[in-house]
Amino acid sequence: MAETKGKFDFAIDRGGTFTDVFARLPDGREKVLKLLSHDPQNYKDAPTEGIRRVLEEETGKSFPRDQPVDTSQIGWIRMGTTVATNALLERQGERTALLVTSGFKDLLHIGTQARPNLFDLEVCMPDVLYEEVIEVEERVILRQDSCQLPRNEPKRIVTGSTGESLEVWRELDLQRVEQDLRRVQSKGIRSLAVLLLHSYTWAAHEKAVGSLAKRLGFAQVSLSSEVMPMVRAVPRGYTVCADAYLTPKIHLYLTKFTAGFKGGLKGVDVLFMQSDGGLTPMEQFCGSRAVLSGPAGGVVGYAVTCYKSTEKKPVIGFDMGGTSTDVSRYAGQYEHVFEATIAGITLQAPQLDINTVAAGGGSRLFFRSGMFVVGPESAGAHPGPACYRKGGPLTVTDANLALGRLLPSFFPKIFGPGENEPLSTEETMKHFSKLTQEINHFLSTNQTSNSASGAQLSKMSIEDIAMGFINVANEAMCRPIRALTQAKGHDTSEHVLACFGGAGGQHACAIARALGMKMVFIHKYSGVLSAYGLALADVVEEVQEPCSLQYEAGSFSELDRRIEQLSQRCDEILRKRGFSRSQINIEVFLHLRYEGTDCALMITATDHPSNASSCRTGDFRTAFTKRYLKEFGFTITDRPIMVDDIRVRGSGKSGIRSEVQAKAGQKSPNPIKMTQCYFEDRYLDTSVYLWEDLSCDHSIQGPAIIIDKNSTILVEPTCVAHLTEDGDVCIAVGMGTQCVLGTELNTIQLSIFSHRFMSIAEQMGRVLQRTAISTNIKERLDFSCAVFGPDGGLVSNAPHIPVHLGAMQETVQFQIKAAGGSLKEGDVILSNHPCAGGSHLPDLTVITPVFRDGVSAPVFFVASRGHHADIGGITPGSMPPHSTSLQQEGAVFTSFKLVTGGIFQEKAVTEALMAPAQYPGCSGTRNLRDNLSDLRAQVAANQRGCQLVGELITSYGLDVVQAYMGHIQSNAELAVRDMLKDFAHRQREKTGSLEVEAEDQMDDGTLIRLKVQINEEQGSAVFDFTGTGTEVWGNCNAPRAITLSALIYCLRCMVGQDIPLNQGCLAPVKVIIPPGSILQPSQNAAVVGGNVLTSQRVVDVIFKAFQVCAASQGCMNNVSFGCEKSGYYETVAGGAGAGPSWNGRGGIHTHMTNTRITDPEILESRYPVILEQFSLRPDSGGAGLYRGGDGVIRKLRFRSPVVLSVLTERRSTKPYGLHGGKNGAPGLNLLHKTDGRVLNLGAKTTISLDPGDMFSLFTPGGGGYGRMDELDGDHHLPSKRRCLHESQNKV
């Protein structure tokens, strides 16, 4: 690349609030400045203004603002920008239309069908990026050798780029496409996104549509096959929509930017940062690769400056801003992900693995039901924190100010309504004073219940409370760092913490200490590191194409050919851009997975040279198995390795290296002032230094504050900071003073322990997902993990699957009674029996006791529950619609020793899994290999939980940890009592009664009846299900644990705030369930439908009694098909119920489940089925002031003989509307036979199907809320989204 010596070089990060500029001057000096990104009174464009200022200041020449900037002295410009990010967040992109294969118009609205927040009854999801949909008449399918579909006419056979054969099932109707394109064009739409199924491998139809659209004059046409040719239609569809939506906005900005320079920057090398950390020429900068443009520069910045290749010490990047904190990791290679959700949109494109947590300087502070809470709400830039003098709330920034860690005299006077005042300590302290009174009042009125000893709880000072919020915020930021490291098998304490961003310096020492890190690194340009990182970055050219080869000797020659072809393409492009061969580095990646699994890893063989049993580029097999073993803890030696994609990344080395070093030879540093800062329990004298006054031989003992123009660094007590030769700050983190924590309640520690317990359950879940092999657990996420006390009471349950919430507690408590003290360290229990707290048999629960030296009984328990795809029984999938006894539903475990003395009992568990074959018409498990693998994964997840509980006990002591377990359960109890008191007060004011009741029924007429009596004074309630129907001859019987799960879910939803989810939620509640009823059946009753169907009806009845919202679909729509060798199982979305201020969401999983659905392209590639339609079911949601959500239509045509099982509800009863809202439509199950007959299958059936038969599933809609005659001018119904999806296929 051409040298630019003697010229000005610029690296600019244009953020949402500030624009940072790094300039390398002709004489080698460096200059940085920061200016507002939007200041229309003074300049049109911030990056242009930054360049103009530097040129004017350094040359002494005039560069008038109203004239284009002379570029004769500019060498290069590199930019990162949040233009795309902000357009995505604010939904201010280009008006876009989506062209999608006919039958899939709502595919991206439904997405994975999972809701983002488990307990939010108003399902809030970002709008889709398109406003019009064109269904394209075309269809291609993958050929299958086993396909037995009847053929009326021959189909055209084509070969995809993966080498796979496809059939053109339906030819492209270009004439109709043209008519539809002209229609949307007449509405002013000029941007198109094209998503056709299987175009990742055969793109001819997409290219034909693209050519037509360009000929018609559409300005932006994005094809999914070009934007990201990877399998999975849903994320590829989101990505192509983002590209079409954002790219025109980027081009518009670039046009305005170049117009500010003479000649439009011709002759100047202008590069933009992409989400993957590489630079690309301005003209190739596009929307789908631009969303992380800003944060990517910061990752490059710390990676290049902090990581030392000689030491190989991995680095955690910690970028704390105003509203959120970004964390990432670098260990010699950039860590990329190829699917990430940003602003609610899942993008399938190479992007740096950056994890964001909603905790920043502007995060708001709350005290809720005895709990210190930080975020996720933010004060934003306006009004900002209370100290900004604009009427804002208390934030993390205010807490730092109250503790003396921010010094207003060093901040510019830009605050207040006139933006001419300093930070206001007075406003901060006024707000904290009010909050302190509220907290102390709460503590004084609740001391009896929360203090085990009954001792008087001392009052908290303002400083105690501010310090508490800082500690809670720090713990919230530690959680994603632990996830980023420990979840991938890395030791967090072995990392360096690289801190940058405006707010991070005040928290870095505390966070590093909490994570066991020994070093904090803060670059001299930490306040503008994203800009500096642009100057250090390489120019990157990436090419990728799909593949479907097995990684074996017979495929190596083809792999080598394709790798060479792609490598040459990268090399040629980079050489055309001026790079020499010595500057170019080519890196090859293969996207590998074990056959039959969905977990693919992007693998480089850089450290594994080729050999006789590998392809020429390297030994990818060894690289893959080592990485798989490190991340997942096992390998699958007997399975072939598949290549999903070939990726080549070419890098042109073009980054600068700073030659400016810090001064040396100065005497001991002199502080410019002394101040008082609060640490834990007292104020300490704290020295204040200016960074610019420090020399590279200076050491600064904490406590101290180091200030520069853009950041404030807090060096905490026992920490020592020193300046490196390059002028950066390194802080050696000391252990700090260990505060002895007692067993009495400390409300600050309560919040921190809540985070720690929840983090344990979450990390167990990550281990289980990583180490499991089945689609059900690894992809559909049908599992839950939890921590329990020594009495089996639930302590923390990660928000996985709601139907597991209370049920697991019953299981653990049963095992404690059954074991009778016989459990020993190294024992692990397996259980699924309903009488032992099981939900239904496929949900296998693995329980591990946690022991402690010197204590004979378990001190805690950890457990994981996962849905296994098959455990035997009368039908494949172990979800028989017509089972009448437990034995027909699969293998049964009551208290089975899965591990004894640390030894996995494979032979015994195999015999138990095959045992159902002894019953008439039943089979043993049809997938033993996956059962054993998933059980081992559950054991591994539990082992991780045991380890983390042990570490917590080591840190605080067993008595303290168990005491806080009790405090957290009491806190959840308090939140539920507050909710019940509030409801009782409103109910008494409205009706004069403290009793509510409701009933609903199953499709067979069985009643679920509930009467609730509430004690307003105590905040307690009796939930009495007397009058509920008897046990049924069928499988909709629900064990008692199911009702408790439904109840704890409903209580948590009605509390309406983030509280610990544990047994305390049920403490204020007495539950009466009549024995022998459908909710407490006999020991051998069939229960498989109770878990997935009756649980939903129990929720409907509880919410109806409390008048919370209209009924949601009330079903999980269980569909399974297969043969004796294999099977497939899915649950399908429907409509959510409307509420007092919201429309119900359509095409979403509701209440007691939240599993994902298999992507259409994966479904068709793995199973003998064609998905003919997957869309919303128009008008199935109930009408009302607020409409219920629509159900979905899902049509499956089978390509070979299968046994289909359907287990559903709400086929004869309708989801109720509330307060005058109409009922939702009931569901319908139809079978279309090849002879033309259409059969209603009813709610529950098992049937053998022939090739060509099609199953059509119409799921229920949600109920409406409120009468339509209440509609006023403030409501505009139906909503925009409903209008968007009105079409045919009404049922």
Automatic annotation (TrEMBL):
GO molecular function annotations of the record: 5-oxoprolinase (ATP-hydrolyzing) activity
InterPro entries per UniProt: ACX-like_C, Hydant_A_N, Hydantoinase_A, Hydantoinase_B, Oxoprolinase-like
Domain Acetophenone carboxylase-like C-terminal: 557-720
Residues of the Hydantoinase B/oxoprolinase domain: 747-1267
EC code: 3.5.2.9
Domain Hydantoinase A/oxoprolinase: 236-542
Coiled coil: none
UniProt family annotation: Belongs to the oxoprolinase family.
Source organism phylogeny: Eukaryota, Metazoa, Chordata, Craniata, Vertebrata
GO cellular component terms listed in the entry, alphabetical order: cytosol
Domain of life: Eukaryota
Domain Hydantoinase/oxoprolinase N-terminal intervals: 10-216
Protein name as it appears in the record: 5-oxoprolinase
One of the protein's GO biological processes: glutathione metabolic process
